Amino acid sequence: MKEFCGTECKMGITEDIFGEFSDPDSGKKVAVKRYTLSSASGVSVQVISYGACVSAIIVPDKTGKKDHVTLGFDKFEDYTKINYQGSTIGRHANRIGKGKATIDGEDYQLTINNNANHLHGGKRGWDKYVWESCISDGSVFFSHFSPDGDQGYPGDVLAQVKYTLDDEGGLHIDYEAMTTRATIINMTNHAFFNLAGHAAGQRGLFEHVVKLNADCYTPVSDQLIPTGELTPVGGTGFDLRSPTSFKEALTNVPGGLDHNFCIHEKRRGLLEFAASFHHPPTGRMLEVYTTEPGFQVYTGNFLPKDEGAMVGRNGSSYKFQGSFCCEPQNFPDAINHKHFPEDVYRPGKPYKHSILFKFLVRK
Prior knowledge:
mainly beta; nine-stranded antiparallel beta sheet; six-stranded antiparallel beta sheet; 3 helices; about 40% strand
């Protein structure tokens, strides 16, 4: 495993150049910056300016051995070929049915990029741009301007992501966005985790024990669009309120998890516990906290089944159900279900969302 490197800056952050991106719209070549954040806990995180992406997280196990716990790539170019690996998702995370959105009585058609639906911001969501970046006060800041009409959305939007790594190994992600017109915004991070190690595959995933702070979930159609129901998890395969192995959970949910869970008694705007994931053999544990009312749990069901079809860092083969995502966010397709939490933001009403990925080790 290669150690992180770069030119030392300050506050435990280093910076280097990871690659060069040729923008398909402007034709300009832009340097992709990479930042490494290190903490006293032994946790290290890399973020890159392409997609304001978490490109790597290294965490020690209970013996002190370190390994990558997210999927990722050695070369920048691979991030442009494989969607959503660690990326910041925007302007709107998750699916919107048929790309239809009605805001203040006006209908908008968003770009279609997932069957007949809109997914993760469209054909060129925010994950496919190089963001402006800088280091300030021990954090890495990324910013991106999205013009009115971008992917069909109304309003100019200026978005910011701040990454901070605390001394205990907690990765804080803070989102903010301002708009010039009423629009919908729903940002998240799309890291693929495997606490057994990035190359451990389905065997490692099945060893995880998961616990969700959710008493309801939002059922979906065959195209993974919410039906509008808020269904109690009790008595279903989605009841993961008590510690359950991923192997058992996926036995109870044919096809795997790709569902939004509703946080129990969520007080929106406050950072509250959403989920925990524990890998007993290594002792590594991830706790997830969010200020949003829901979170998507996804078990890599669309990753390839064939060996070598998706090659990650150090030549590792990333395959079907060999990792999981926990994406804190507002409910999918909220604009089309009036009883879902509102996702419309306006001038003078900025979007704000905070996530904490807290890494722990149980001896």
